[in-house]
Amino acid sequence: MRKWNLIIDCARCHDCNDCFLADKDEFVGNDFPPYSVAQPWSGHRWMNIHRKERGQVPIVQVVYLPQPCMHCEEAPCIKKSPAGTVYKREDGINMIDPVKAKGHPEIVETCPYGAIYWNEEAQVAQKCTGCAHLIDEGWTETRCSQVCPTGAIKLVLADDAEMAKMTAAEGLEAYQAGLGTKPRVLYKNFYRWDKVFVSASVAYKDTDECAEGAKVTVQSGGAKAGEGVANNYGEFVVDKLGLGGRYDVTVEAPGYQAYSTAVTLDKSLNLGLIVLEKA
Ligand code: SF4
Ligand code: SF4
Q1: What is the pLDDT of residue 1?
Q2: Cystine design at 68: which of 34, 128, 156, 208 (Cβ 3.0–4.6 Å)?
Q3: Do the beta carbons of residue 266 and residue 195 sit within 8 Å?
Q4: How does pLDDT run across 21-50, given as a tens digit for each residue?
Q5: Does residue 148's CB lie within 6 angstroms of at least one atom of ligand 1?
Q6: 19 CB within 6 A, ligand 1
Q7: Among residues 88, 123, 87, 122, which one has the least CA distance to residue 105?
Q8: For residue 94, which atom of ligand 2 is closest to its CA?
Q9: Across residues 6-21, what is the average pLDDT?
């Protein structure tokens, strides 16, 4: 059967918060029995956007990771909450029953992603419902996927085999995969969140010009880990490197002495200005 999956592209999100606001528009002040009671005016982030900066001035990238409930297949919230209060629907959406869960604040602590919030007024634990009330009316979008101006959020209603194929083809990854929760929310271009880069600006000493076209090779233990080419500003970025890894970086240009350095990437690193001298 077709199941609910959400794909979020880290390379497309620019932190406009439209998804966050669409969620507020849908759920604040609106009861949707038997799915959910109204979200309070403040304090809840059913779509929570995390932010991270990589690199150092002048080569800096900012990446955003919108995170709703992951609708996990191996969901700690279902396993650890009082029986029947949190359950999985056949289409993969995980729900908190607003009646049965009333008076159980301990449910909030069962989610390792921090995706469950306490509604003090209604005395109930709440989270993203996957827009189940709309899906059941035939919607093929969630409010967040519908509103995203960059197409960063995509609702995919597909069976598990189709989804496995898409996951492999698009290189989709789980956030905090080590938790082993098998989330139904997967991320594209996730390297921008969990990998690091090495970068620099390269110039020629004799001409004082940007070294456009200089070739960069990054090796780890003698094997190639990445490569790049300096752009017209002389800048390069070699991405998708492992956090904490030790790498040898070599910059080469015809007619100039090669530059080499060893780095340990505890974070994305801008090496600053590399000046190539005539051979
Ligand atoms: S609406 Fe789209 S681009 Fe805007 S914050 Fe949400 S995911 Fe990012
Ligand atoms: S993200 Fe948290 S609340 Fe959502 S299904 Fe997984 S464990 Fe449950």
Answers
A1: 85
A2: 128
A3: no
A4: 999 999 999 999 999 999 999 999 999 999
A5: yes
A6: yes
A7: 123
A8: 5
A9: 98
Q: Domain spanning 3-193 has what CATH number?
A: 3.30.70.20
Q: For ligand 1, atom 6, which residue shows the shortest CA distance? A: 19
DSSP codes, 220-249: ETTEEEEEEE--TTSEEEEEEEPTT-EEEE
| Domain residue extents for the chain | 3-193, 196-276
Give the up-direction half-sphere exposure of residue 113: CA atoms within 13 A in the CB hemisphere: 32
The finding on whether 128 has its CB within 6 A of some atom of ligand 2 is no
Q: Please state the pTM of the whole predicted model.
A: 0.94
Question: What average pLDDT does the structure give for the chain?
Answer: 98
Topology annotation, domain 196-276:
Immunoglobulin-like (2.60.40)
Tokens 């009333």 sit on residue:
102
Residue type, 49: I
